[in-house]
Every structure is written in structure tokens, then in C-alpha cells.
Amino acid sequence: MKIAEIFQELGEEKFRDLESAALRELCDCPNIIVATGGGVLQKENTMFLCLSKKGFYFLDADPEKLYQRASKRKFKRPKMKNLSMEGFIELYKERRNLYSSVANFTINVNELKPFEIAEKIKKIMNQIEIRGSNKTTNLNFVGSIDDVLSFISKSNQIIFVDKTLKTSTEALSDFLDERIEDVFLVDHAEENKNLSKAEEAYKFLTEKNINRDHEIVAIGGGALTDFAGFIAATFKRGIRLTFVPTSLLAQVDASIGGKTAINFGNVKNLVGSFYVPNNVVICSSFLKTLDQQGIFKWIS
């Protein structure tokens, strides 16, 4: 039977029972993506089933746009028959509250094409949330430098980068050249993560009128993330922070957990704090820029 026939002959309640049973069966299948209808959360047991899943995505849009899309379809949804714009908006508000409370991720799809929506979902699926007592870090795994750039191309981001990395790949080099006004270069980060370099960084941020709406992006090894994390933790009492670790040790250790520090009085990491980053972007392509000695140094 078609959906419209089930609604007409058996009623909506029966349809929701069938929908719930089908969803419960599908949720037991591995490696599957299920696209549900708008009313799927109306049954309590279905809502709890969705709550138990960690990958529940809510594709949101303006109700006016949704109404126009639904009205143009040849197949009229049962709920859409004789439904005015005002009635649709009320239905949208009622359902949106449910979806917002249940969804793990909400994506606004107003201006997005289907393939762009799929790309956004794919990025989120490659993400792990690390929940702390007062902050959550999004750990993102990407496959290419271009994917990294999609995370660090916002106008409110200031980029701290290891000078040796500036020319490591053509894509990164071109990107940094375009954003040169927003780039703070650190040469030999381990030797220069000190109060003198920190003062330079504070001056750079102050001259650019950086505030707590901005974000520091740190691209480099563990010494660079230590330094940039310390600056982010202390400037304006803390601003947003994203790590793009490029060495093996930085990817598996230094970028995780919020360790930040600078050297003082010839003592390594004497002054510092724990300041958890908002995002960590892990890209194995950076490891290809290291020489063999650089990789085996950290494996040992």
C-alpha cells in the first residue's frame, strides 16, 4: 500500500506504528543511513529509539521554503492536503522543538544543494566529540590538506603557524599567502615558545583588534600547539582555539587534553595552563611532509 492509502484506509496512528516498527528493524542493521519522514518523532517509543542513536541528524530550513518545496511536489503528503502556509508553520514549530531536543546534529540546509548537504554530513560523521567538565572538543579526521582548509577559512580566524610548514604543501602555502595579514609565524617553535615571543603575539592580536569572537588556529607540531594554546588561554581571558597538529606526537598526544605552556628561565613548560581546544583537525597528509627520521623519532 502507498502511504496515502494507509493514511486514508487505516489512519495515521496505524501508519506511525508501521513506521516505528520499520525504523526499529532498520536501526539494528550495521552501516546504514535512514531518511525519515517529518512526523517520525510523534510516537514516544520512536523518539526514545532515536535518542539512543549517536548519529541523529536534523536537516532544518525556513518553514516558508519547506512549504514551497512540498507544495511543488506531484505527490502530496497526507498532512499537506488542504494545509495553509499558516497551518504548516504551526506544524513546523511543533515538530522542530521535538527534533531540536533529540538531534545530535542540526544542519541548516536553506541554501544548500543535496551534494553540499551530503558533504556536511560526511564531515560530521568523521568527527568525535570529547566531552569535558565544562567544554567539548570536536575531533575531526580529514583526508587532505584541502579538507583542512575548509575548517580554517573563516574571516574571524587568526592563524599561528610553524614557519617551516608555510611551504610544506602548495595548497597550504597559497592559502597562507592569501591570508598573510592574519598569519603569525613562529620560527623554531620549541626554542621560541617563551615570554618574549608571547609578547609579540599579544601585540599582534591587540593591533588587529582581536576579541573573544575571534579564534586562534594553530598549525604545527606540539611546541607550536603548546605556544598558541597558551596565547589563546591568556589573551582576553580566553578565546576560541582550533589545533591542526602536523607531527605524529602532536596528533596523538599534544593536541589532546588541553596542555598549553611556554618555557621560562631555561625550564621547559614551566608556565602554562590546561585550556581545551574547541576543535582538533587531524590530517594524515601532514605526516607525508615529514622526513623518515621525523616520523621514527616519535614512534620510538
> Radius of gyration in whole Å, from Cα?
25 Å
Distance between the termini: 64 Å
Shape: elongated
Largest sheet: 7 strands, mixed
Mean pLDDT level? 83
The unreliable regions are: none
Please give the share of residues in helix.
Answer: 40-55%
Based on secondary structure, the structural category is alpha/beta
* Widest sheet: strand ordering: 3-4-11-8-7-5-6
The total of beta strands comes to: 11
Helix/strand order, N-terminal first: HHHEHHEHEEHEHEHHEHEHEEEH
Percentage of β-strand residues: 15-25%
Oligomer: single chain
In short:
The protein has 300 residues and is an alpha/beta fold. It contains 13 helices and eleven strands.
